[in-house]
Design brief:
Layout: H1 2-5, H2 9-24, E1 26-27, H3 37-43, E2 54-55, E3 58-59, H4 65-82, E4 86-88, H5 94-118, H6 128-138, E5 142-146, H7 162-166, E6 168-172, H8 183-193, E7 197-201, H9 211-221, E8 224-228, H10 233-237, E9 253-257, E10 268-272, H11 274-281, H12 283-286, H13 293-306, H14 309-331, E11 335-336, E12 345-349, H15 357-366, E13 369-370, E14 372-374, H16 382-385, E15 388-392, H17 394-399, H18 403-418, E16 420-424, E17 430-437, H19 441-455
The structure holds pyridoxal-5'-phosphate.
Length: 465
């Protein structure tokens, strides 16, 4: 930090303050984690200075031998860890990985017949007229994905996102009675809509998805099954999700982030079968800017960590802790979407406490519990205020929390929410944004959390001076 302080002290201060904040709060954001010192240090070096458009051994720039080494290593670890035929480790984020996947499915679809007609050997040889035909063919493709309020992600075909502009979209939801995925309803929607891409994967669904059944549905209607495992990649890597629940053997293409349950650097990745590998490798420069060599190096380190036996133990503890958290909330009267969890996250419907998701999120933050508000299925409060709070265990499990401690976290959460009331606007009108936490609760919760957090120091040995 001293080196940074010499140039821009405010940045050094913000970095230091972030560590202080993370050390002092209960981080329950389901998409966050704490990367290892090895992963963090691998990101801060001169590999960042290199341009390396292209792929390993086929670059548009000279002098890429060391970037080739780290990219090849990251891809090899990814293939071995997930049992994938092909891995592409360049995407800068999960959204970028999804864009690469969309591009490759679309390009494979339209390029081949158009090329055959044009008698050309490569997409670069297409004439303007060929491109016109391609554009028209690309313009009316369809995607079927999980709805946002059932737990799907914005990139799964929703209007405000580029995916909703590239594809005509329809979504499948969950059974209103149980909150669970209804495979018969997904199959019926697929038969009627006949999508090019059937997308499975979620940001806020607390149960498992049977990818074998999703593949059967895709095959029946001639769709490509794409799985976005951004949230649960760590559980796949740690062999907690196997058989029908491991997407890799069932999907033609799998995308992920590397920074959530996988516990790597911030970034994305694509795994695919041989039929898509060539298109996927054209991700940069067709869809992505130059790769981030320092981040690919950190992906290699994180994936090497995930191949160790300790990571399997970690992944199992993430799920055990989520169950303990769910049970702790449920037994204290909390209303959980689907009644519980099978993965790393819990979706708490806070309308039972008379609060909006926004009010609950703010009250918890005031007490040092960091979560995020999230829509619940058929949410009456919409996507901004919401009626839910999403909580996940990957970060606290990395810190060393166990099941008994998660029960205590459930108690802290319940205490805050049951002692929070909705606030009013300055003119006295009801507000979905403002909250009032009873006097003394924030202090009480912070002191109880400090005891828990003190048992599991974060980045021990890192001294801010
Ligand atoms: N896909 C899913 C399922 C996600 O939950 C997220 C992020 O929350 C993303 C993609 C996007 O990842 P990123 O923020 O790295 O672009």
């Amino acid at each position: 930090l001293e080196v940074i302080r010499g140039v821009e002290p405010r940045v050094a201060d913000a970095i230091g303050a972030e560590l202080t904040d993370q050390r002092a709060s209960l981080k329950l954001i389901a998409s966050e984690n704490y990367a290892s010192p090895a992963v963090l240090l691998t990101m801060g070096n001169w590999l960042s200075d290199k341009y390396a458009e292209g792929t390993v051994g086929r670059r548009f720039y000279a002098g890429c031998r060391n970037v080739d080494t780290v990219e090849a290593l990251a891809a090899e670890h990814a293939r071995e860890l997930f049992g994938a035929r092909h891995a592409y480790v360049q995407p800068h984020s999960g959204i970028d990985a999804n864009l690469v996947a969309f591009w490759s499915v679309l390009a494979r679809r339209v390029e081949v017949p158009a090329l055959a007609e044009a008698g050309a050997g490569h997409v670069n040889d297409l004439s303007e007229a060929d491109w016109g035909r391609l554009r028209r063919a690309l313009g009316n493709q369809r995607m079927l994905g999980m709805s946002l309020d059932a737990g799907g992600h914005l990139t799964h075909g929703f209007r405000p996102n580029i995916s909703g502009k590239m594809f005509e979209q329809r979504s499948y939801g969950t059974d209103p009675a149980t909150g669970l995925l209804d495979y018969d309803a997904v199959a019926a929607a697929a038969r009627e809509f006949r999508p090019l891409v059937l997308i499975a994967g979620y940001s806020a669904y607390p149960r498992l998805v049977n990818f074998r059944m999703m593949r059967e549905i895709a095959d029946e209607v001639g769709a490509t099954l794409m799985v976005d495992m951004a949230h649960f990649a760590g559980l796949v890597a740690g062999k907690v999700l196997t058989g029908d629940f491991d997407p890799v053997p069932h999907a033609a293409i799998v995308t992920t982030t590397t920074h959530k349950s996988l516990r790597g650097p911030r970034g994305g990745m694509v795994l695919c079968d041989d039929s898509l590998a060539e298109q996927v490798d054209r991700g940069c420069p067709m869809v992505l800017g130059g790769p981030l060599p320092h981040v690919m190096a950190a992906k290699a380190v994180a994936l090497a960590e995930a191949r160790r036996p300790e990571f399997r133990d970690y992944a199992q503890r993430v799920v055990d802790n989520a169950r303990a958290l769910a049970e702790g909330l449920r037994s204290r009267g909390g209303r959980l979407v689907t009644g519980g969890t099978d993965n790393h996250l819990v979706l708490l419907d806070v309308s039972g406490y008379g609060l909006s998701g926004r009010q609950a999120e703010a009250a918890l933050l005031e007490a040092g519990i960091v979560t995020n508000r999230n829509a619940v299925p058929q949410d009456p409060n919409g996507a901004w205020y919401t009626s839910g709070v999403r909580m996940g265990t990957p970060a606290l499990t990395t810190r060393g929390f166990g099941a008994a401690e998660m029960d205590e976290v459930a108690d802290l959460t319940h205490t805050v929410l049951s002692r929070t009331t909705p606030g009013t606007t300055p003119s006295g009108a009801a507000s979905k944004a403002r909250h009032v936490l009873a006097d003394g609760v924030a202090e009480e919760i912070r002191s109880r959390s400090a005891d828990l957090l003190g048992r599991h120091p974060l980045y021990p040995g890192v001294d801010l001076g």
